[in-house]
Amino acid sequence: MKHKSKHFDVIVVGAGHAGVESVHAAVKLKQRVALVTLDPASLGRMSCNPAIGGIAKGQLVRELDVFGGLMPLISDVSGVQFKLLNLSKGRAVWSPRAQIDKRVYERSAQKALLFHSRLKIFRDEVINVLLIKNKISGVLLRTGQAIHAPTVVLTCGTFLGGLVHIGEQKIQAGRMGEHRAEGITEALESLGIRSGRLKTGTPPRLLRASINWDKTNAVFGDINPIPFSYSTINFSPPNLPCYHIKTNPECHGVIQKNLFKSPMYSGDITGVGPRYCPSIEDKIHRFVDKESHLLYLEPEWTGSDQIYVNGFSTSLPEKIQLIALREIPALKNVEFLRPGYAIEYSFFPPAQLKSSLESKHIQGLFFAGQINGTSGYEEAAAQGLIAGVNASMYNKNQEPLVLGRDEAYIGVLIDDLITKDTSEPYRMFTSRAEFRLLLRYSNADMRLLEKANRFNLITNRLYDTLHKKLKLTSHTIGGLNGSLSQEEIFNILPQLKTKKPPHPAPAKRFLKRPEVSISSIPKRFFTELNNKDINPLWVREIFLEVETQIKYEGYILRQLKQVERMAKQEHVSIPHDIEYSKINTLSKEAREKLQFVRPETLGQAFRVSGVTPADISVLSVLIYK
Amino acid sequence: MNTPADTIVAPATPFGFGGISVVRLSGPFSEKIVYTITSLPNGKKPLFKPRQSTHTLLVEKNGATFDDGLITFFKSPSSYTGEDSFEISCHGNPTIVQKIIDRCCEEGARMAEPGEFTRRSFINGKIDLLQAESVSSLIYSKSCEGASLNHKILQGKLSKKIIEIKEKIITLLIMVEFELDFSEEDLQPDLRKNLLSKIKPILSEIEKLLSTRKEGRLLTEGALVVITGKPNVGKSTLLNSLTETDRAITSPIPGTTRDSIEVSLLLFGVPVRFCDTAGIRKGAVDVEQEGIRRTKILTQKADLVLCLYEYKKNHTNKQKPVDLRQEIHIINKTDLIMPGELKNLKKLLPNYVFISAKKKDGLNILKRKIKDLLGISSSLSNTFSLTTARQRIALEDTCNCLAAGIKLLQDNNFSCELLSFELCSALDSIDSLLGTTAPNEIINRVFSSFCVGK
Questions:
Q1: A559 and B CB contact within 8 Å
Q2: Of the candidates B124, B179, B438, which has its C-beta nearest A89's C-beta?
Q3: Chain-chain contact of A429 with B181 (C-beta, under 8 angstroms)
Q4: Which of chain A's residues have a Cβ under 8 Å away from the Cβ of B407?
């Protein structure tokens, strides 16, 4: 907070997870940053569930870590339970998740940023953007002052025109009890940027003492947890339980009877909610046959009085919420600290962005997070980081950081955002990644290390040690070309003894068999891993990667072939001045969609929803002509 | 490649003399062009109505008439290409055809590239890739049944069947993806069984479709039936009797036929190419030896081999084991065998067919047997079949992926995400058939196999 001037390199608007990563990346790239937030005390706040990571999201967090993101580090510090999900479903979809102490998380984020020498915080609200021609030059604040910068990153979350619904009650707010942002939506619309409405919900918060804990099932995390961050060294987090309870027909009855009081059904809410995260009234209405739904009681911080009911997101009137929950034995006498609610907010369809997250209309204006129609802390953080980096790259007049669909979940996320229709809040899934087998949480370093280094996003020290780790992994794989003796083979596969004696053969070949795990391969192949220089937390991961790369070799090769096929049209760029509305041979839908999205490459055009292969043939004919 | 904005012209009937020839014109300026090259006998300009034929004179630039013809107008989008199109029927003389094309080009049209009419049809969304492909097959079909088969593909029957299969695979994929992305619980034990019970029928459905490939090819390309046997066993006589021609020269001298002779005929509606070969014997002279080498190559390519023998009293027919799927073993010259002896012989060699090629005895039995072994069934023309190698390869890939999926599912600890990968790859292959994700090279290859005009 040294400089008094109102001139900066980057202005970040909003201090949620996208804003935090934007600021963090930009100050790291030596930018002078202004952060505008309605309340600095809520910087890095987790406004919904107390967890980071999960299926596909855990992979995002790992990728953020290679690019020096803040989320993985502070999740490791504030995690109270760590679990690797999907263990029974294949190693390419293993996904780390942590239950988080929200207060520690928020505090850690603030500690990392609030007093940074290159950051100045404005407790204020942006009501308009300042332009010179179609280039951004700064923002106008509610208090009347203007601040100037050649780049602005908008990360306003649910605060744009936020409208909270509880039953028939409507409250204008960004989060319950916090002011919403006004003015900026209209300002951007007047510049020709389209907006839309979405909705999301959050469940009630319960008073810990009012719950009968004897009637719940405690569920713990992994006994040998793994951290998100490669920088985490001493890792011994607590393993606090979450608790399972189940809804019952009585509870469903109460909700069924009062459905009409939910604004979702009465038609009061016009925004589209996420299908993958339905409200309890949605679940009960749509899946009438299901007699019971699982709910998770999650403490929001250590020793917290406040319990989060995961799975019971709702916008029914408070009284109905309470009556319904009290039908569940464990919640017979439950009291609320806060009811569940739905929130409607404005967003800007991200098809109006380039793959750098810069607006196609206004130079220097970047969008990240929920404002782009995504949901989730991790999705927001990932975009925040990319926008922060690319605002800095823009200032330095350098190529933006763009990740491919074959490189990272972050790449899939952004490519989907800029090419697909956003009809509901976008959440990351592993099935969105067509090259899923290549995008493992355990090889994020292998995929992204060099790029992170090229963009100066990783410290030299971490780069060097990760580089060593990767070398060690490939050495170990190479070493497994060495042969096993007959005796060693018998030790691994005793059943071979009965048949004719096998010839000595490469250890690799045996490891490929489904019934052979890496732990049964003789220790002499792994002596290099006893090296004291290696973070002991990494040794397990090296074992895992060696095993995966050998066992999945055939599949990985097939995926790489698919990548090659895609690459052919991926890099064919489409002329900027192409006038889609005049190409009669395109289908009507394709003409409209392409005119709106204006894809940068043929690959992107191919993924625009509503565009058919015949349309792509027409386009490629025109481009190659 | 040119943009589909210009007007193209090409003959639609083969080059040569005939009753009539047809020239086809398609594109935005086709109507304007036709006006300038036509005139009514009374000197007025004709009026073309969509889907109607108009009789007009065809005129030179200076107004001189060079032919008269019947012109049919197809208005966009109700035409083959989806653009305004005209079909000009003229007298079947190559010079006239060339004249019409020259006139059209003078007025702004250009010669169509091979397959360009069909490519425009595809680009304008009139047909899908499978249908485009069968247009080529329809043109090259050698039989009526083949033509009717391709007509069915053209109408989208095969596409429909494959879309059905695709939907089934998608249903499976949805189940798997649910497990991967949404369920935090461990895999349900019955999921594996459930998936297995669903994936197996899909595989056999595709396998069934693949088995129709042979039929489809028989109908469009015709079957190759090769007649082999020792010199002078009567191969050429058999060929002549079967085809009721005198194509092959016959004589009592061994080695009369030195090169193979091919005769086509429709057998139960299917084109069959019968091929007479040089007899194989030791000590043959050079020319004859070359004939023998060719015989060997032909038998390898054949769909069916007719092995012809002659019965000789003093030595028994001790042949190598008979492959009854691809060979028919025939004893010829039954007219030279005593009736009683023939009866015994038939008992002794139940798998043999007995004929007299010269007297045309037993030929119907032989024909029926040929039909059975070629798999020509009477219901054939009521179904649809795969006709091109690309269709076969894509479905075989699909099969392989599904089979790999089944193999994964047979392991108790199967990896759900690998199963998903196999299912996605299966879908990719199917998509390449339906044209939903066909890379450009495939499209181009399909189109370049068309003759000019369509």
A1: yes
A2: B179
A3: yes
A4: none
Enclosing H/E stretch for B171: helix B157-181
Nearest C-alpha in B relative to A555 = B418
Mind listing the pLDDT tens digit for each residue in A66-89? 999 999 999 999 999 999 999 989
The span from the CA of A594 to the CA of A608, in Å, is 7
Please say whether the dihedral angle defined by the alpha carbons of residues A19, A21, A23 and A26, taken in this order, is positive or negative: negative
Domain coordinates in residue numbering, chain A: 10-200+345-454, 205-341, 460-561, 571-624
Identify whether B328 is part of a domain.
yes
Residues B353 and B422 in one domain: no
Cα angle vertex A68, ends A62, A71, to 5°?
60
Based on the domain organization, do B375 and B298 belong to the same domain?
A: yes
The whole-angstrom separation of Cα B68 and Cα B91 is: 8
The complex's ipTM works out to 0.84
Which of B129, B179, B181 to mutate to probe the A interface, most A CBs <10 Å? B181
Tokens at A188, concatenated: 């951007």
CATH number of A460-561: 1.10.10
Q: What is this structure's pTM? A: 0.75
Residues B31 and B79 in one domain: yes
> Rounded mean pLDDT of chain A?
90
Tens of pLDDT, residue by residue over B291-324, are 777 777 777 778 888 888 887 765 555 555 555 5
In angstroms, rounded to a whole number, what is the distance separating the alpha carbons of residues A391 and A397? 10
Token duo for residue A579: 């006038």
SS3 for A553-576 is HHHHHHHHHHHHHHHHHHCCECCC
Structural domain includes residue B255: yes
Is the separation of the CB atoms in A473 and A542 below 8 Å? yes
Instruction: Tell me whether residues A90 and B124 touch, CB distance under 8 A.
Output: no
The answer to whether residues A120 and A1 touch, using CB atoms and an 8 Å cutoff, is yes
**A48-107 residues touching B, CB cutoff 8 A:** 55-56, 85-93
- What number does CATH give the domain A10-200+345-454? 3.50.50.60
User: Which residues does residue B304 pair with via DSSP β-bridges, in sequence order?
Assistant: B225
Are the Cβ atoms of A555 and B418 closer than 8 angstroms?
yes
Selected for mutation to probe chain B from A275, A276, A431 (highest B CB count within 10 Å) is A431
Q: Report the top-level CATH class of A205-341.
A: mainly beta
Do A563 and A612 meet the contact criterion of CB atoms below 8 Å apart?
no
Number of compact structural domains in chain B: 3
Output the average pLDDT for chain B.
77
Q: Is the pLDDT of residue B384 over 60?
A: no
Residue A65's nearest CA partner among A187, A211, A229 is: A229
pLDDT of residue B344: 84
Listed residue (B311, B369, B354, B303) closest to B319, CA to CA = B311
From the list B117, B126, B121, B136, the residue with the least C-alpha distance to B387 is B136
Residue B157 and residue B235 share a domain: no
B415 and A558 within 8 Å at the Cβ level: the answer is no
Per CATH, domain A571-624 is 1.10.150.570 = yes
Nearest CA of chain B to the CA of A346: how many Å? 27
Look up the domain containing B316 and give its range. Answer: 222-380
> Are B305 and B330 in a shared domain?
yes
Check A437 against B416: CB less than 8 A apart: no
Tokens of B89: 């029927």
Residue of A120, A601, A13, A605 lying closest to A365 (CA atoms)? A13
A624 — pLDDT class (breaks 50, 70, 90): low
Q: What is the DSSP string of B102-162?
A: HHHHHTT-EEPPTTHHHHHHHHTTSS-HHHHHHHHHHHH--SHHHHHHHHHHHTTHHHHHH
Task: Report the length, in residues, of chain B.
Answer: 454
